[in-house]
Description:
Blueprint: H1 6-13, H2 23-33, E1 41-48, E2 60-64, E3 75-78, H3 84-89, E4 94-96, H4 98-105, E5 113-116, H5 121-125, H6 128-131, H7 149-158, E6 160-164, E7 170-177, H8 182-198, E8 209-216, E9 222-224
Parallel strand pairs: 3-4, 3-5
Antiparallel strand pairs: 1-7, 1-8, 2-6, 8-9
Helix pairs in contact: 2-8
Amino acid sequence: MGKITKKRKEALAKFDRAKVYSLTEASSVVKTITNTNFDASVDIDVRLGVDPRKANQMVRGTVALPHGTGKTVRVLVLCTPDKEEEAKAAGADYVGLDDYVAKIKGGWTDIDVVITMPSVMPKVGALGRILGPRGLMPNPKTGTVTMEIGKAVQEVKAGKIDFRVDKFGIVHAGVAKVSFDVEKIEENARELIQTIIRMKPSAAKGTYVKSIFMSSTMSPGIQVDPKSIT
């Protein structure tokens, strides 16, 4: 490990790395130890006792964060002309089809979420190579392939996020900004963690939630007691 920066030293002095905090305490500590000149994201990492290589142990879903993420979410809707007005009225940033498919093929990915409809999935499917690795590929399971385009745009804009367990069995998600009140950080984090707990696959054996850590973009991780999530 390289030299510890002055900021990191100060952060480490403000909390006990060996301690396991309640979710309420952690939500307060993360604000105290974040020393950045930008509004950092607050992230949650939940390590699960699942084998994500097995389809019946895949944990994937969506959660509506009560206070939104604090991020501006740029939404692209790929749809047929009859749905364009609905998408625009709901607040989509970009709306179209062939022109945006061509733009993405040319390497454009300045977006956070892509929403589309079943009938145009063959065209969108061709972009899998570009959208897949960036986590932008629409999927019926996360509500981003739907006929209810307007509703999907509104939900994403209001703070609906999707999450999935990675190959190491960890769910990682940004749930707030450090500028949020402690209560809002806690409520958003609790909503995500409770949703993950509810999704426990019946095939998962042993301890399901192995550990929970909260951190901000530049801070060390604060260990959270799973028992404090009720």
